[in-house]
């Protein structure tokens, strides 16, 4: 059975606090970015995860190598310390977020194009009706 792991990074992105959820499964990485607003407390983040995890919109999966876990406790402690010191998100996560952003952009463009075409069609139909109404005799 494959391993599924998740990671949450909360950081300050002026003017709000943001969180990046990383989900690794089957050698693939999916990412979701959430804006919290004011600095979230640990219990607020936990509550948010419990309530909204299944509604999060993760990015399309990006290939990612599985990380080897450190068996040495001192090494694990140093690694945890390094991760808490580093700000921001990893490059793979950034790629996944960018991919998600591009996907949303194309969806938004197609929807707005469809709306625009529908509005154009509606106006054309109104013009045609008005023309026919004028043409009828009294």
Description:
- The chain is of the alpha+beta class and about 140 residues long.
- The chain contains three helices and four strands, in the order E-E-E-H-E-H-H.
- A four-stranded antiparallel sheet has the order 1-2-3-4.
Question: SSE layout and pairings?
Answer:
Elements: E1 4-13, E2 16-25, E3 28-37, H1 42-52, E4 62-63, H2 73-85, H3 91-135
Antiparallel strand pairs: 1-2, 2-3, 3-4
Number of strands: 4
Uncertain spans: none
The helix-and-strand class reads alpha+beta
The overall pLDDT average reads: 83
The number of helical elements comes to 3
Shape estimate: elongated
* Strand line-up in the sheet with most strands: 1-2-3-4
Distance between the termini: 80 Å
Strand/helix succession: EEEHEHH
Share of helix, binned? 40-55%
- Assess the beta-strand content as a share of residues: 15-25%
- What's the gyration radius in Å? 24 Å
Largest sheet: 4 strands, antiparallel
